[in-house]
Design goal:
- With about 400 residues, this protein is of the alpha/beta class.
- The chain has one domain: TIM Barrel, CATH 3.20.20.
- Helix content is about 45%, strand content about 10%.
- An 8-stranded parallel sheet has the order 4-13-12-11-10-7-6-5. It has a two-stranded antiparallel ribbon with strand order 1-14.
- Bound molecules: flavin mononucleotide.
- The site of flavin mononucleotide has 22 residues, from helix 5.
Length: about 400
Amino acid sequence: MNDAASHERVQAASLPEASEQAYRSLGHRHERLLKRVLDLGDYQRLARPRLPRAVYGYVANGVEADVAREDNRKSFQDWRMVTRVLRDVSRRSQATELFGHRYGAPFGIAPMGAAAVVAYDADNRMARAAAAANIPFVLSANSITPIEELVRNNPNAWFASYQSPEPDKVQAMVERVARAGIKVYVVTVDVPVSSNREDDKRAGYSMPLRPTPGLTWDGLTHPRWLIGDAGRTVLRRGIPVISNLEATGGVSLLSREVATIAGHSDFTWKSAELIRKFWKGPLVIKGLLSGEDARIARESGVDGIVVSNHGGRQLDGAVSPLDVLPEIKAQSGDMAVLIDSGFRRGTDVLKALALGADFILIGRPFLFASVVAGEAGVQHAISLLSKEIDIDQALLGLADIADAGPDMLRKG
Ligand SMILES: Cc1cc2nc3c(=O)[nH]c(=O)nc-3n(C[C@H](O)[C@H](O)[C@H](O)COP(=O)(O)O)c2cc1C
């Protein structure tokens, strides 16, 4: 099925059905494998032995003592749900409107830097799967897939920048992103400096990438990744280059410069306001955890925020986004409130919607799904989660997911 035809069918059907259809069109090669995948966590378990330890750790790990990442999962346990019965839930919808687009589900794929180093062509594959299911895909500035190439695979893609604050560079970057056809500009703000990822260092994952004996052995003992993912990437693109940090040029993963690109500690609200001045479309600030920052974002003319602790990868011991969602919602006015970090289940999604979130982003599971089965894996993962949401909303008595509200929650 070509892209346009598959997209039309998706528009016509509900998401659980549509993503199932889209997945079937791709999934035959992986059918037996994917029968063993029953929830998003299964993708991580299956991906682990396929990846070198350093590459797996780069995706899976948190930071320092891993408190923030673990807390993200625990925060969902603080809430239990009250079902409502004998309502007609025979026709259910999880379609959700955001920034003028009606998405097939209330979740999208979070930006993940260097994804195509983890799995061959992962950015494009995740982007195509997201397009087929009509959910958002967010490309990271730190990716090796250029924005312009990605948009050819998903004309509705969003972009998440890490950028320097100099006004002429801001303007040039905004112009590049607009020219490429990106629909939503996300500014990631919780990386003023790179975080202290000790486990990455222990495993030999560093920027620039250095083929130490340990890392070389790690690669050689995972030939499927070495040839099928890393080798194919180098054949296609040469030495990977981080392509989307500035309007022109890129930084090779092997160059010394790459160690200094993460984080601009002089990027401030003034810089965000400058982006607002140049960018005409929806603007989203990603990585807020404080109600006060939500207020400043609103006053800066931002259209949306992502309440996020970066999946527990930045400040260890940072509060879980779900715990601060109500206080942030109270300050958000007309801004859309998105949330991420640790969402794995339909019930997680419904709890956040009930607490006032408008939309959810999810990272690691979709990248692990690309490792396991490429685009079909990502489509299957989207379909698994949307089916969970579909069952959960029926059990909660919610025909329309927009009716999720605080009355369905109790402290656990
Ligand atoms: C491998 C990896 C790379 C990431 N790179 C970026 C990035 O470049 N920009 C960004 O805004 N967030 C980045 N994040 C954070 C995600 O966008 C998201 O906030 C987080 O993964 C959500 O948590 P989850 O993975 O538990 O769903 C990255 C996350 C992972 C796992």
